[in-house]
Design brief:
- The structure holds 2 protein chains of 2 kinds.
- Chain A has helices spanning about 10-25, 25-50, 50-70, 80-100, 135-145, 150-160, 165-175, 175-200, 215-225.
- Chain A is mainly α.
- In chain A, helix 6 packs across helix 8.
- Chain A starts with 11 loop residues before the first helix and ends in a 5-residue tail after the last helix.
- Helix content of chain B is about 75%, strand content about 0%.
- The chains are: A mainly alpha, B mainly alpha.
Amino acid sequence: MGAIQNKLDGPVSEELALVRAAKAGDDSAFEELVRRYDRNVFRIAQHITQNREDAEDVVQEAFLKAYGNLAKFQEQSKFYTWLVRIAVNEALMKLRRRKPERTVSLDEDIKTEDDSLPREIADWSPNPEQQYTQAELREILSKTIQGLPPGFRTVFVLRDVEGLSTEETAAALELSVPAVKSRLLRARLQLRERLTRYFQRRENGDDKKSGSKSGDVQDVKNDVASGDGNQ
Amino acid sequence: MKCSEFLHELTSYLDGVLDEKTKVELENHLSWCHNCYVVCDTTKKTIEIYRDSQLYELPDDLRSRLRSAIMTKCQQQKKRGPQSV
């Protein structure tokens, strides 16, 4: 079993050239930076806020803030890491506004390690994602990650979906490296645990969706059919 | 290596940053401990499924709408002159 490779290793010097041009007043260079990272910022924002309109706002506000504060960007980190930090803060602010009854903080922690200990150890079907349509699969993944505390899902998204390194994630979230590692492990294990309910190998050898065992599968299908649920 | 130790090293293993000695011990553990093997394998699949899922892709039309809104606001901000944002 090999290691998972990070996918985001863009040419830093090219990025820096764009940043410097933008700092010097070249708006087309800034627009190129927007083009380069708008998809990433949108994904991160929607993962954190779990709301599409909020994610759209975050994309605009994060880039506008980056534009206004470009002179203050010290070039000691990648522009992208700096941008992610702005975007995460904007997204968390949205989340706090939406759920004021619950304090939302990246510092929130769960008291024990027990929540991450594997309980569900069933093996998965060989190609579990093929048991579902694209829409069903997205619904399952979206619902599953929503169940994680914001601090956990943010670390998971930055590290595993966006491909930031542990150090970059720590810098973007203003967390220590050990805190990022611990959250990442727990996020990965909790997601694995929850996905096992959908993807485990069926005892009767039928990997196709039978609908017989899990009510969750039917729930997801109903949600997809009624258009209820996140994009 | 015990199962709890395996769990502790799992993230470093999947990220490919384990030192050689620990990696060998971990893989030795996986060769006989089926439960840990399954946890390792399904955790890896979990990461891959999310990575490949194209969850929350930005549609092209929305993307260009957002970009032109951003650039318009940037230019307005520039005209107003430097200020704290």
